[in-house]
Amino acid sequence: MVEVSTSILSIKEGEESKTILGLETSKTDYFHIDVMDGKFVKKDTYESMLQNASYIKRISNIPMDVHLMVEDVKEAIDDFVSIEPNIITFHYESCKSKNEVMEMIDRIKENNCKIGISVKPNTNIEEIYEFLPYVHMCLVMTVEPGKGGQTFITDMLEKINKLKQYIDENQIDIDIEVDGGINLVTAPKVKKAGANILVAGTAILNAVDYKIIIDELKE
């Protein structure tokens, strides 16, 4: 079954409560928390996302899907475990060595949280194969991380398909999440390639009816 993780990156200021409750009623499966530090990517959403995630924790039971686009993964894990997310995903590219990747995996695990590992478009998917047995999800970026509303990079379909084939051949129990340019045109393609969790932001938040688009993304 395909799930939808709604990015709150473009929620309008002053409409947080209305939007969050509307998304909950519309049966989004997760709230996707895009955490950026202004270093790993140009945009800085660190404090605003910590504030928004804390607010979501108070008013909603929908699980949170935290995506760390930061240089200091350790510090960000320590900051965001306080909101009790369902999963914390960090970027493979943020780590300086394979040992550091495993250290971050262990750190998230120690905080009783599911673990995700993410790769940017230019990173070969084979680089993270060895870590897949230790994580719950692999997030494939289909745009360059850092801002919402970008155009889907079609070459990433081959990467998703390759990942799905490797997972199946090696019988690894793991989700494939895709983030970037997901809408009603691109969603069927990434699902066919093997993704089972779709991150969408502007496609949902700009819709007149959240439920209609969330239902269509899940189909």
Structure description:
The protein is α/β, with parallel strands linked by helices. It has a single domain, classed as Aldolase class I (TIM Barrel, Alpha-Beta Barrel), CATH 3.20.20.70. Helices cover 36% and strands 20% of the residues. The protein has 8 helices and 8 strands. It has helices at 16-25, 46-59, 73-80, 98-110, 156-169, 187-193, 202-205, 210-218; strands spanning 3-7, 30-36, 64-69, 87-91, 114-119, 137-141, 175-179, 197-200. An 8-stranded parallel barrel has the order 1-2-3-4-5-6-7-8, surrounded by 6 helices. Strand 3, helix 3 (73-80) and strand 4 (87-91) form a beta-alpha-beta unit. The longest helix has 14 residues, at 46-59. The protein is globular. The mean pLDDT is 96.
Give the topology, please.
Blueprint: E1 3-7, H1 16-25, E2 30-36, H2 46-59, E3 64-69, H3 73-80, E4 87-91, H4 98-110, E5 114-119, E6 137-141, H5 156-169, E7 175-179, H6 187-193, E8 197-200, H7 202-205, H8 210-218
Helix pairs in contact: 5-6
Provide a quick synopsis of the model.
This protein has eight helices and eight strands.
Give keywords.
219 residues; TIM Barrel; 8-stranded parallel β-barrel; 36% helix
| CATH class categorisation | Alpha Beta
**CATH topology group:** TIM Barrel
Number of helices in the DSSP assignment? 8
pLDDT below 50 for ≥5 consecutive residues: which ranges?
Answer: none
Rounded to the nearest angstrom, the radius of gyration is 16 Å
Kindly report how far apart the N and C termini lie.
9 Å
